[in-house]
Amino acid sequence: MSPRPPTSAHTIGPFFPQTFFRAGDNDLARMTAEAAPTTRGERILLRGRLRREGGVPCVNAILEAWQADAAGRFRHPADPEAALADPDFLGWGRAWTDANGRYEFRSVLPGGFAEGNQRRAPHIDLWIMASGLMRQLRDYGLLRRFRRRERRRPGTGAGPAGAPDAAGRGGGWRG
Fold first, then answer.
1. Cα–Cα separations (whole angstroms), residue 135 to 14, 101, 129, 166, 167
2. CATH at 125
3. 117 lies in which domain range?
4. What residues pair up with 5 in beta bridges, in sequence order?
5. pLDDT tens for each residue of 112-144
6. Is position 55 within any domain?
7. d(Cα 139, Cα 144) in Å, to the nearest integer?
8. How many helices (H) and strands (E) does the chain have?
9. Which of 7, 93, 101, 149 is deepest in the core (most CB within 10 A)?
10. Buried-exposed string 108-136: b where 16+ CB fall within 10 A, e elsewhere
């Protein structure tokens, strides 16, 4: 007997209706869709295309992005400088891939930040959820102008700590 393909009970999804997404969910630079975007930092647009093996578009995948504000701070209790974080910057968003596997996020150029005794290069973290995946994928995007700085982090041979690629190795994609 051959194994059966995974069903919705076995994979993480996404099994969310498109109404799960609201206007502005992909804009990390504002607190709500109705709010004005932050005035701090350089505005950026992160666009991409998610593909399955063989180059087939990954349709209806969900991507969640989060990042530090333009000064490298997070509005989170674990950040010792959270009180100084940009009050108009959400830093988290969600996008859904279209029929061609395309997605888009609006944000600001993130600032680098301290992690332990090291500095992290500016980057954007992504969670990817799609039909057929048995678990979420976590990845990160290094922005071109900061790649060299992150690669030369002392004491490491890979990109940011804790950011595995799809195979679970350090590294990830380079935005």
1. 11, 19, 8, 10, 12
2. 2.60.130.10
3. 18-151
4. none
5. 988 888 888 888 999 988 877 767 777 767 666
6. yes
7. 16
8. 1, 8
9. 93
10. bbbbbbeeeeeebbbbbbbebbbbebeee
